[in-house]
Amino acid sequence: VNVDNSREQIALERHSPPRLIIRNSQSRILRTGNATVRRVSVFGLGYVGLATALCLANKGHLVTGIDSDERRVRQLDQGIAPFFEPKIESYLKRAIDEEYFRVTNDSSSNAESDLAYVCVGTPTKHGGGIDLSFIESAAEDIGISLRKREAYQLIVIKSTVTPGTASNVVRPILERESGKTCPTGFGLCSNPEFLREGHAIQDTEVPDRIIIGSADMNAATKLERFYSEYYGAGLAPVIMTRHENAELIKYANNAFLATKVSFINTIANIAERIPGADVTTVAKAIGLDKRIAPEFLRAGIGFGGSCLPKDLSALMAFGEEVGYNTRLLAEVQAVNREQISKPITYLKHKLNTLKGKKIAILGLAFKPETDDLREAPSISIINDLVKEEAQVTVYDPRAEMIAKSIFGSQIAYATSARESLRAANGAVLVTEWEEFTHLTPQDFLELMEDPIVFDGRRLLEPGRMREAKLQFDAIGLGRESFPVAKY
Ligand code: UGA
């Protein structure tokens, strides 16, 4: 059987099942397999949307990415990823070349899809809650496009939204705009995403669990079958539940991770006051307790990024809305703020004044393997240094371009870590890029004017640094010279 789809050139040939052959316009066989090919739309092509779209395309599904940002659409169409993320560019080029993935800002093309993913952003609004305007407009666009579609479509919300959003916001908009009713005209599931930046493809291909929330068993089962086929024997545990639980699970997850980080940072602050103590040993030991687990126990100058800080504020605002004071989360946030300010406290203690002092900042991104600077501790550290009239030189292997758009000529940009250290009066390691592990105590001693080094991510080996007579301090390292903070 030949099935012509609207992309004309691609023919799906199903011989005696389960054989499936997909050819491109030149009749070249691109994929063979035994899975059912679906037409899928993905609304919002950020980290979650793009990773979802490309992983589905990589499995042979025909994916249309829909984004309102015309520049992003043009870039993606040319195979250019809008951000740095391992594997994204190679997946993108392949999917575009092989015609599994097309990008558009025309949401009416959603009418052709069996499945529509909503992956648009939910930014923080004043007061800490989330701004649902992108969700609302994606729901409107999907609803309008469904007027032209007779067949059932399954709509899946991957965006992070507070409990009640699918049932009370998305579903009414879809019904109003499409003229159809849920669950007969279309299905609606919540399917929160747990991918980490820097591992977006890997986490999408190998999730540790799949959460499916719905008010309708039929829709939930359809999505579960789709994932069973997608992952085969590698299918992770699936939790099927109500929309509201699925929505809350996502917030609980990120709030717990943030709590773990602020917890270990609390222990780090105690360890700093004990000569000879080291939080990394304490973290390793408690992480071996199965009830605690080793991940997210790296002490540092605080968590950043587009998710943990935002989701924490959103959950706090939501708690308030439903009449609960989330005081535990308020402390998690306060501890994090304190961590971010530590390099400044340290440098001021060491140098008396920062005015005119040359400070090297090693790393800008909120974590390694990304060029993302959203809520990165580096931003607040640099802003404080600039306010104190320090001369700041930064180096980051990936985030320089984005940093230039934020700081412009207020600071200097080095092309290597060693270059940033030249003639510096102090250095702070802000992001734990692997290449910084190659810096030796000699580099700091020879290049810096005053070899004062603060390791904000526990990347450098303290024994080597202190033996070399550097003035070296680090988060959670029993003090040699670390100031006893006032807080
Ligand atoms: C986070 C979650 O880890 C993902 O599961 C979730 O899907 C994602 O948010 C999201 O909501 O979309 P991400 O923001 O990419 O992912 O970053 P993380 O790897 O969680 O790191 C967050 C911050 O915590 C970073 O600044 C990192 O440096 C810091 N961190 C992490 C620590 O300070 N210590 C640790 O032990 C771990």
Trace the largest sheet across and list its strands. Answer: 7-6-5-8-9-10
Distance between the termini: 72 Å
Computed structural class? alpha/beta
> Which stretches of 5+ consecutive residues score pLDDT under 50?
1-19
Mean pLDDT: 93
Radius of gyration: 25 Å
**Ligands (ions, cofactors included):** uridine-5'-diphosphate-glucuronic acid
Largest sheet: 6 strands, parallel
In DSSP terms (H or I, runs of 4 or more residues), the helix count works out at 16
Helicity level = 25-40%
What do these coordinates show?
- The protein has 16 helices and 18 strands.
- The chain is of the alpha/beta class and 487 residues long.
- The strands form 4 sheets. A 6-stranded parallel sheet has the order 7-6-5-8-9-10, sandwiched between helices. The protein has a 6-stranded parallel sheet with strand order 15-14-13-16-17-18.
- The protein is globular and about 75 Å long.
- The N and C termini lie far apart (72 Å).
- Mean pLDDT is 93; it is low at 1-19.
- Residues 160, 193-197, 254, 257, 261, 296-298, 300, 303-305, 307-308, 311, 366-367 line the site of uridine-5'-diphosphate-glucuronic acid.
- Uridine-5'-diphosphate-glucuronic acid (UGA) is lined by residues 160, 193-197, 254, 257, 261, 296-298, 300, 303-305, 307-308, 311, 366-367.
